[in-house]
Amino acid sequence: MTVDDVARGADPEDVSTNPSGNPAFRDVAEARWTRRSVIRGGTVAAAAGFLAATAGPAAAAPLAPAPAGSGGRGHGRGRLLGFAPVPAGSADEVVVPEGYVAEVLIPWGTPLNSRGPEWRKDASNTAAEQAQQIGMHHDGMHFFPSGRGEGLLVLNHEYVDRTLLYPDGDAVMTKEKVDKALAAHGVSVVKIEQSGGRWRQVDSRYNRRVTGSTPVAFSGPVRADHPLLRSGDKPMGTLNNCSNGYTPWGTYLACEENWNGYFGTGNASWKPTAEQARYGVVAEGFGYRWHAADPRFDVAVNPNELNRFGWVVEIDPFDPKAAPVKRTALGRVKHEGATVTESRGRVVVYTGDDQDGEYVYKFVGSAPWRRLRTLRKDPLDHGTLYVARFDDDGSGTWLPLTFGTGPLTAANGWKDQADVLLRTRTAADALGATRMDRPEWVAVNPGNKDVYLTLTNGSGWDNKANPRKPNPYGHIIRWREKGGDNTATSFEWDIFVLAGDPAYDPEAGPAAEDAFGSPDGLWFDRDGRLWIQTDVSNSTQNRADRGHDNIGNNQMLAADPRTGEIRRFLVGPRGCEVTGISTTPDGRTMFVNIQHPGEATTFWGTPTPQNPRAVSNWPDFDPAGRPRPATLVIRKKDGGVIGT
Ligand code: FEO
Ligand code: CA
Ligand code: CA
Ligand code: CA
């Protein structure tokens, strides 16, 4: 990549239309790296490569230097981050900055409509009742406005807490318990309205649950009648919906992540095939034991049921009768999310495969999405899926997962494009993709189209894109596609921040007072603030012997991508992770999810059916209740934009 390429990549139109006035990528990097003076450890070589490639005449005004001694934490004009950061904490509460308020909306078990089944705090709601209530473990989320002060909130329910979901825990597994778990998974669509400043759920014909049992359709190269998808029943359900996406035509994307964990078998002679092993399918699953009560999840009985999972699922929130559609052209992996952007009128979808050593993918539409829709072709069915190779010199290449190209030929045993997609991971192996430290969320800067990716933690993979070995705190990498065009097949990358606590790890990027670990959720707001949500595992949270006592509970931070400044905005209750984020179009209300408060942690203890409150009792604090995942509605008391 040459200096001229970078100059072309700094799209002046994008820079000038961004309210935050984002400068060119090279100025960002130079300003940040000058201020910090060094990029430490393994990132040095990559950083040097990037800087060498990007040194040259500036296309935009240079950034003003951070005020001396302020560490960039001032409240001056033009700053993206205007709030006073909150300290790390370990209390069983939600903490937001001075001048902000966070209210609880739609906790697990809330009836979908006012006539729906009431929440029972002893978890005795039946499976049928759960299917008419908000699911458990809120995750990815998007707000679809339908008018002023109203809209549809659409959110994923990633998984269930096997102890807290039932009055008697899960020591005995029954079909009713499997059905309740299935009903607590999936997606919720709820209408919400603002009145008197507060947001509340209202009855609506749009209020809907998609669960692990909802009939679903397949589209793209892998059809529902594919021989490897034939199983007992018609395809149904979506599971482990982690992060999400949303399309420019107003639909929601729910992503299937750790679907393998629900499957297992008691058949001692069963052995996984090579493909099943590649996706982590084992006889024990993740310990749910659904297979003991429902043969649908017994891999020895119904092996093809596995192939119905691992997809990105499109849901039209404004058409409650429409079946969710599994968009198979986006590949079959453990999709964390599906972040959509547009370039040259084409849709571009970035998706991480969240497992240690897995890859980053992107889908590029074959033609402008509006034209495809005019032709009655779905934009997510027509295009090319790529996987990323990050080279140590700071450059990168997108490798096409296209049958008949490169190693993906009939001579090498590949049958057709459906075969490539069903075996996406194996196809990416063959292409020489770069193994990464658990790729989670992707966010695209609305100003300059730079792409940011959280790598939550991992073992380090002998490449400079994953510069710490091991990498217990994770990092955020970013890249600029060639020419600033997100459909391009090459890019330049650098490390945005190495997470961690400088008290334990001198390589950590954040200031000591804003230390964080395991970045996971990642989202740009309309002004270009980068929001970072953390998911430190329950075996590590709060533990000094793992270098996490100063980090405290999981949290959300905001970053200024121009300067690298990061401030902690929110701390969650005990045992939770913070995930899912959206705002109203005016940026004055933010929605954030608190997932798995009160889950078993090494630090706080283990809930039991007798004491479900061992770790947390958020948000009800009912002495006879139990912790409940919920959505937070965050507003600024003066009505201002969140983050200012
Ligand atoms: Fe569901 Fe990778 O977090
Ligand atoms: Ca996640
Ligand atoms: Ca998690
Ligand atoms: Ca995670």
UniProtKB/TrEMBL annotation:
<dbReference type="InterPro" id="IPR008557">
    <property type="entry name" value="PhoX"/>
</dbReference>
<feature type="compositionally biased region" description="Basic and acidic residues">
    <location>
        <begin position="1"/>
        <end position="11"/>
    </location>
</feature>
<feature type="region of interest" description="Disordered">
    <location>
        <begin position="1"/>
        <end position="25"/>
    </location>
</feature>
<dbReference type="Pfam" id="PF05787">
    <property type="entry name" value="PhoX"/>
</dbReference>
<dbReference type="InterPro" id="IPR006311">
    <property type="entry name" value="TAT_signal"/>
</dbReference>
<protein>
    <submittedName>
        <fullName>Secreted PhoX family phosphatase</fullName>
    </submittedName>
</protein>
